[in-house]
Design goal:
Number of domains: 1
Order of helices and strands: EHEEEEHEEHHHEE
Oligomer: single chain
CATH superfamily: Electron Transport, Fmn-binding Protein, Chain A
CATH topology: Pnp Oxidase, Chain A
Structural class: alpha+beta
Radius of gyration: 16 Å
Helix content: 25-40%
CATH architecture: Roll
Largest sheet: 9 strands, antiparallel
Length: about 170
């Protein structure tokens, strides 16, 4: 698991005087973001990008999908992927997590991740009127796949007024 804080280095394309974005700031962006973009590669090499819900849990970014959805089929062929989130503005911070996705099999881990999702997304998952009501139960039962992306690299892109490019790296496991 990647519960340890990564090493952060400021990139060369940062503004003069910029500082590396602390991991705590990037983690806060991940925690507050509602929508993430998952990029995978189809078996024929074409890219595939789709929006989805994600939560930092189990030491990585977790998301759900059905076993026959394009993203799941892509990940069976090639588990390397990228999750991206941030703002649709010239201010704020965008965060990118590159990693390797794996299906979470252990019941206690699925339960822990569901609790993290429900804390983050609240009534969207827990209220009978919520768009994704029942998703947690389906994940715990194993009817919906839960993926954990173990981070291999991460990036935070600080935008105006001072642009910065921070690279995060985790120790090898």
């Amino acid at each position: 698991m990647s519960d340890h804080e990564p090493h952060a280095v400021l990139g060369p394309f940062s503004s003069p005087g910029a500082q590396a974005t602390p991991w705590a700031t990037a983690l806060a962006v991940l925690g507050e973001a509602e929508v993430f973009w998952l990029s995978t590669v189809r078996p024929d090499g074409r890219p595939h990008v789709t929006p989805l819900l994600a939560a930092w849990s189990l030491g990585g970014l977790c998301f759900t999908t059905g076993s026959q959805e394009r993203k799941a089929l892509n990940l069976e062929h090639n588990p390397r992927c990228v999750l991206t989130t941030g703002t649709n503005a010239l201010t704020g911070v965008d965060v990118v997590i590159e990693g390797v996705a794996s299906v979470v099999e252990e019941l206690s881990e699925r339960e822990r991740a569901v609790a993290d999702f429900e804390r983050k997304y609240g009534a969207h998952l827990t209220s009978p009127e919520g768009t994704w009501y029942g998703l947690g139960e389906a994940v715990v039962a194993g009817d919906v796949r839960l993926y954990r992306v173990a981070p291999t690299a991460g990036f935070a892109f600080g935008k105006l007024p001072t642009s910065s490019q921070t690279r995060y790296s985790w120790p090898s496991r």
